[in-house]
Inverse folding.
């Protein structure tokens, strides 16, 4: 296993938005997407993460992922990094997507632990090794979200992966703040919170930022929260952090962006729009956050 170079994750810090994928009917709305990207960059967002969980990656066709990544790169014009979600529950398709994304010119890969399969820790190491090789020298962010995938990357395994060439960061959505602190101190990885509500405390413990759902609707405030570790912003946004998960992500955040006039409130099955009973909760949280 090749050694990684220290500091390689320095470009992944601050508020990186896990950007939604707008739809219009059966198609991806690339014009609305480009407008979202431009708004994010203008608002101080540190990076654009395309085709992650919030981007409904599991329902995207390969050509749609490519179109989204290429449009993001065109809109960004090198101002912030564009990271592509390329993880699947099969190593062969993860390798295929990762190799393709490297050819598209993205700045990094976000690779989730294989969902449904529940691999062993050794299986995870071999999976990420294949994926990192396919990244062709572009940085890889590991994504540990056991609530979605049914498996976690144990700390000893994270430390093994941290020595792997190209692996530079970890998006941690385990909810274990002590673990975040230990891994920030004991590995060269850039730790990134996978939970908006935990961002402030994670950064106090050594994390470098967040891959954020809330940044879709309050990009400037999430950027300031990460830059200044501002507890007042954290308290102000807590109702929003909670409201954006009253139903499965990205259902609430797409409703929020629709209320803000930025996208159509459309998702792909098996996801459906926010239920009427939860609409007031999300709308109230948007008002408290100053988003509407």
């Amino acid at each position: 296993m090749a050694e990684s170079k220290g500091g390689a994750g320095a470009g992944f810090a601050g508020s990186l938005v896990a950007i939604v994928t707008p739809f219009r009917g059966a198609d991806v709305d690339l014009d609305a997407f480009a407008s979202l990207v431009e708004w994010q960059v203008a608002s101080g967002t540190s990076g654009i993460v395309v085709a992650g969980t919030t981007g409904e990656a599991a329902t995207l066709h390969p050509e749609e992922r490519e179109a989204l990544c290429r449009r993001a790169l065109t809109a960004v014009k090198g101002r912030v990094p564009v990271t592509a979600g390329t993880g699947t529950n099969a190593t062969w398709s993860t390798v295929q997507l990762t190799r393709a994304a490297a050819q598209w010119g993205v700045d990094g890969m976000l690779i989730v632990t294989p969902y449904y399969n529940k691999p062993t820790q050794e299986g995870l190491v071999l999976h990420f090794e294949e994926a990192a090789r396919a990244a062709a020298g572009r940085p890889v962010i590991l994504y540990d979200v056991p609530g979605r995938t049914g498996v976690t990357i144990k700390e000893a395994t994270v430390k093994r992966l941290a020595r792997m060439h190209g692996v530079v960061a970890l998006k941690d959505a385990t909810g274990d703040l002590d673990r975040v602190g230990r891994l920030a101190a004991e590995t060269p990885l850039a730790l990134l919170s996978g939970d908006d509500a935990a961002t402030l405390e994670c950064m106090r413990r050594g994390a470098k930022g967040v891959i954020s759902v809330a940044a879709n609707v309050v990009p400037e405030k999430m950027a300031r929260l990460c830059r200044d570790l501002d507890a007042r912003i954290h308290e102000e946004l807590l109702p929003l952090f909670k409201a954006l998960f009253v139903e499965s992500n990205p259902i609430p955040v797409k409703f929020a962006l629709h209320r803000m006039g930025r996208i159509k409130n459309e998702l792909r099955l098996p996801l459906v729009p926010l239920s009427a009973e939860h609409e007031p909760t999300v709308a109230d949280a948007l008002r408290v956050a100053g988003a509407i």
Residues 1-7 have pLDDT under 50 and may be disordered. The beta strands are 14-18, 23-24, 27-28, 47-50, 82-85, 108-112, 140-144, 167-172, 190-193, 209-212. The two ends are 50 Å apart (CA to CA). The CA atoms of residues 260 and 292 lie 6 Å apart.
